[in-house]
UniProtKB/TrEMBL annotation:
Subcellular location: Cell membrane
GO cellular component: plasma membrane
NCBIfam families, A to Z: PRK15133.1
Native source organism of the sequence: Acinetobacter tibetensis
Protein name: Microcin C ABC transporter permease YejB
Membrane topology: Multi-pass membrane protein
Key words of the record: Cell membrane, Membrane, Transmembrane, Transmembrane helix, Transport
Record field: transmembrane: 9-30, 120-138, 159-181, 211-234, 269-296, 316-335
Entries under Pfam families matching the protein: BPD_transp_1
InterPro entries to which the protein is assigned, alphabetical: MetI-like, MetI-like_sf
PROSITE patterns (UniProt xref): ABC_TM1 (PS50928)
Similarity remark: Belongs to the binding-protein-dependent transport system permease family.
Keyword Transport tagged: yes
Domain of life: Bacteria
Length: 354
C-alpha cells in the first residue's frame, strides 16, 4: 500500500498541471476578461466626463470624448499582466504555484492566498459540520429503511426523503429565514454572519454558543437538502448485500443478527458509499455552500469563487480551482486507503490501479 500511496502522490503533480492547462486555455478564450472590463469602465468614465463639459467625439478634439489612447490600453494590459504572451504568463503562474503563491486579486487588491485563508473558516465550518450531520443521520436512517423495507417506517420516511431530495437546500434556507430569523414569524436566530459583532468580548463558552447559534439555520438547511440521496444510497447498498450468500452463511454459523449486519453487511455496503465520498465532500464544502453563503450572507470560498468568475478575477479563479482540485485528489487518495482498511481483500497495487 505504501508504494501505491507514493505513486498516487506523484501523480497529483501531472494531474494538477493538466487541469491548470485546461482551465488556463478556457479562461483565455472566454470573452469579457479583466482588460476588457477595465477598458470599458475607463471609456465609460471618459464619456461621462466629456458629457459634463458638453463635447462629443464628432465636434471636438477633447481626448476624453474619443475613447482611450493606445498608450493607455497598453498600460492597462501591463497592469493585469496581459502585455506578455499567454505561454509566458502560464509559465510564471506555474513557477509561483510551486511555492503556493497564487498572485494578487485584480479587484480586491489582496494576495489570493490571504483571501482563501480569510474565507476558509466559513466554508470549513459549513462543510465540516453539515457533512458530519448528514452522514450521522443518513447512514443509520438508510440502514433502518433497508431492514424494514416495505414496512410502515420505510414508506413514511420515503415521503420525507422525497421532499428533501426534490427541494434544493437554498429553498429550505429561505423558508427557515422566513419562519425563524425575523422574516414573518419568529426571530429566534440571527439573519446573517458567522459570529456576532461582540464575539471577541465573549467568554469561551459564550463564543461556542454564539458560533453554533449563527450556524444553526445554515446547517439545518444544508442537512435538509443533502441527506436524502445518501440515505437512499445507503438503503439500496444495504439491501443488495442482505440477500448475498455470505449473509446466509454467517447466519447459519449462529452469528447474532447485529454481528451479521454490522460486522459483515455494513462493511461491504459502505464501500459503495465511500466511492462517492470525495465528490460529495468537495460539493458540500464548496459548491453546495454557494447559495447558503449568499442567502445567509456568509463570506466563504464558494462566494469568493463565484464573485471571481463574474468579475473575471483570474488569480482568484485559478487559486480557488487549484485548492478545490488538490483537496479532491487528496480526498480520493484517502478514500482508497480507507477501502483497504475496511476490506483488506482490496489490493490496488496488485490490480495496477494508479
Amino acid at each position: 500500500m505504501g508504494t501505491y500511496i507514493l505513486k498516487r502522490l506523484f501523480l497529483i503533480i501531472p494531474t494538477l498541471f493538466f487541469i491548470l492547462c485546461i482551465n488556463f486555455a478556457v479562461i483565455q478564450i472566454a470573452p469579457g476578461g479583466p482588460v476588457e472590463r477595465a477598458i470599458e469602465q475607463a471609456e465609460s468614465f471618459q464619456r461621462l466626463q466629456a458629457a459634463k463639459v458638453g463635447v462629443s467625439a464628432e465636434n471636438s478634439n477633447y481626448q476624453g470624448a474619443k475613447g482611450l489612447s493606445q498608450e493607455m490600453i497598453h498600460q492597462i494590459e501591463a497592469q493585469y499582466g496581459f502585455d506578455q504572451p499567454a505561454y509566458i504568463r502560464f509559465g510564471v503562474m506555474l513557477k509561483n504555484y510551486v511555492t503556493l503563491d497564487f498572485g494578487v486579486s485584480f479587484f480586491k487588491d489582496k494576495p489570493v492566498t490571504q483571501l482563501i485563508l480569510e474565507k476558509m473558516p466559513v466554508s470549513v465550518s459549513l462543510g465540516l459540520w453539515s457533512s458530519l450531520l448528514i452522514y450521522f443521520i443518513a447512514i443509520p436512517l438508510g440502514i433502518k429503511k433497508a431492514k424494514q423495507h416495505g414496512l410502515w417506517f420505510d414508506k413514511t420516511t420515503s415521503l420525507i426523503l422525497a421532499i428533501g431530495y426534490a427541494v434544493p437546500a437554498f429553498v429550505f434556507a429561505i423558508l427557515l429565514i422566513v419562519f425563524f430569523a425575523g422574516g414573518s414569524y419568529f426571530q429566534w436566530f440571527p439573519l446573517q454572519g458567522l459570529v456576532s459583532d461582540n464575539f471577541q468580548q465573549l467568554s469561551l463558552l459564550g463564543k461556542i454558543q454564539d458560533y453554533f447559534w449563527h450556524l444553526s439555520l445554515p446547517l439545518l438547511a444544508m442537512v435538509l437538502g443533502g441527506f436524502a440521496s445518501l440515505a437512499y444510497l445507503t438503503k439500496y447498498s444495504f439491501l443488495e448485500e442482505l440477500n448475498k450468500p455470505y449473509v446466509w452463511a454467517a447466519r447459519a454459523k449462529g452469528l447474532s443478527e447485529s454481528r451479521v449486519q454490522y460486522g459483515h453487511i455494513f462493511r461491504n455496503a459502505v464501500l459503495v458509499i465511500m466511492a462517492g465520498l470525495p465528490e460529495a465532500l468537495v460539493s458540500i464544502f464548496f459548491v453546495g455552500n454557494l447559495f447558503i453563503e449568499i442567502v445567509f450572507n456568509l463570506d466563504g470560498l464558494g462566494l469568493l469563487g463565484f464573485e471571481a468568475i463574474i468579475q473575471r478575477d483570474y488569480p482568484v479563479i485559478f487559486g480557488t480551482l487549484f485548492v478545490f482540485t488538490l483537496l479532491g485528489l487528496i480526498l480520493r487518495l484517502i478514500c482508497d486507503v480507507l477501502y483497504q482498511w475496511i476490506d483488506p481483500r482490496i489490493d490496488f497495487e496488485s490490480r495496477g490501479k494508479y
